[in-house]
Structure formats: structure tokens, C-alpha cells
# Entry
Amino acid sequence: MRIAVVGGGLQGTEAVYLAKKAGWQVILLDKKKEPPAFRLADRFIGGDVTAPGILAQLTGEVDLVLPALEDEAALLSLERFCRDSGLPLAFDSRAYRVSASKLASDRLFSRLAIPAPRTYPNCGFPLVVKPDRGSGSQGVKIIHNPDELSPVLPDYGQMVIQEYLAGPSYSLEVLGFPGHYRAIQVTGLFMDAAYDCKRVRCPTGLPPAMIARFTGQSLLIAEALALRGLMDVEAILHQGELKVLEIDARLPSQTPIAVYWSSGYNMVKALSEWFLQGSDRESAAAMKAEPAGVVLEHIRVSPGRLEVLGEHIMKEASNLAIRPGFFGAEEAITDYAAGKDHWVASLINTGVNRAAAWAKREEVIKNICRQFNLAQCRDAEPPEMEEQGQ
# Structure
């Protein structure tokens, strides 16, 4: 199996990692000279995919094209090329356009009566303000009073303004075609002080009834979108109820690797099966009867300090490599090299259950701190979580 991954950033790193776990040959395309996933692929093609001739290099070389970026011009170029060349494109552009707009997504949640945060002006402070488009924590602000809100109101039509709900966050991926969807595994998301996801844990420990409700709501959204491919649903637990925050009809970062190590289900492999064979039967058969415990998190090491931070620290990393057994971890994706005193890593720790995986994680962090004589270990939370001691 040969696959082209377009985009070598955070999503691209996820895609290449899982494609290699499936035993595939991977061609990576990116306009950056050495994106984070550069060394993980078998072959690299540099250049803007909207430029003439760049995508033509894939003709006869791959069986499937997987977008791992959110640039609209690039996605349109990929759609045209795949349509003209007959190459399968593992992407649903129509569902993506809805999910890429938080305003459009919120209207969909309302129509389907999916529990979600209340929107301004039908809620009180604090508020969260998010740009209509964009992923991660970029452009997200917490508003505590009317004075802070005033400068935002002129852009009200282009922003999502809704009640801010503090609490644990969760994610669930849905994969398939209309009438045939599979909800994979709920994962727990943990944020840093800038509200960027720094850690993923699974299984979650949520009650089965709550997982069942979340699964049903996610499948309802997929059917309403007539999704063809993969979608990620993110929710927050507030006062005993999961409320859906947003959806993304694309390959997400972080959670697919965690799910792979926990359940054995490879979302990239399954996605290819749906688009090439119309079913994920082979990937589903590889799922474990009992999921393992997994902790995936991002660390930055500098002289005297280790910090657990959001995935943004991996964006500018170069020469990422997969390192099995990294200081006792199951595996790491890292730019560490001998003699380097500034480096980052995505650590993957596993165990027979959730508690065992966390215990292993603690030992790995201690190993790193001992090896590099790091006196400080900072694992920051969002401000309100630190105030509550969570």
C-alpha cells in the first residue's frame, strides 16, 4: 500500500506515523522545506500543491491521497487533481466545510438538539470567544465582564461567543459512510495554561451510560452531515452532562495515536479501507477486547527545566524521529539528539489499565529529570483549573 500525505505539520505527523504502523510506503508533500513529519516519511516532495506540476508527481506512485492540512486553496487543488487523475481522496469536503465553521456547526447542534454551551446574549459571564474558523487554541479568549466584551462585539457575526464551561474535555472519532458508521473510543483531553491540548488519556473512566449518550449524539451528527470519512467530536463535562463544543471532519492530531495504542484500531488504515473497499472490517477485527491504558503528552526540555505543554511546541520541531523505549516510555516522537539541551517530545506511555499507564508515565518523567539534572517540572493547567486544585 502506498499513500500520499499532504501536509507535514501536526496532522501530517499523525498520518505518517499511523501509515507507517500499518506497514505502508508514505510520500509526504509540504511547501515547507523540512516540516515536522519530514524524516518520518519514505519520500518527500517539497512545494505548494497549488503550483502546476507538484501533484502530478503522484501519478502512478500512490494508491490513496490523504489531506493533513486546513488550507482551502490546497484542498481545492487536491480535489481537482484526484478527480481528474482518478486517485481516491480520503476526505469529505462538504462535511469539512460545515465543521470548519464553528457558527455553522453550532446551528447544526441546535437543529439536532445536541447539548452544547449556550450562546451570547442568552448566557452570563465568563464567556469564551472563538474565531469562526481555525483549530486548536488559536484566537480563543476568555471574557470575564462587559468591559472586556465591548471590543469584541463589532466582530460578533464572525465570532463564536458562548458561555465558558470549566471542566474535563473529551473527544470521540466517528468513521464511515452514510448508514454505516463506527464510533471508535472516547479519549480524555487535558489543556495547558493557554488552553492548548497537552495530554490525551484513555480509557477515560466515564460511566458507560454517559459514553453511550455521547456516542449516540456523535453518530447522529455524522448521519446529519452524511459524512464520508472521518470526524472528530469534542465535548466538555459540565454539571454531569457532556456538552458538544465542536466537530472537525478531518484527521485530528493526538487522539488517533492514543486510540491506536489503547484499542489497536488504526484510523488511517481504517480510513483507507473505507475509501478503497467500502468497509473497515479488517481494522475492526484488530481491535482489542479490553483497551489498554495510554498517556500521550508533549514535553519541552531546556536547561534545568521540563515543561508539559500543548501540542503547539511540536509545530516548529525539525528532524522528528520515532524512538522506541525512550527513557522507559513505550515510544516517543522527538527531535532529541545526544548533546542537545533544548528538545521536545510526544511521549507515549502504556499500561494494562489507566492507572498503570499513569504510573509508567510518572517513572518516565523522573527518568528524564534525573538524566538531565532538571530541577523544575512544570505541568501547567488553565488558570481556573489551577485555582480549583484540579
User: Anything to note?
Assistant: The chain is about 30% helix and 30% strand. The chain has a mean pLDDT of 94.
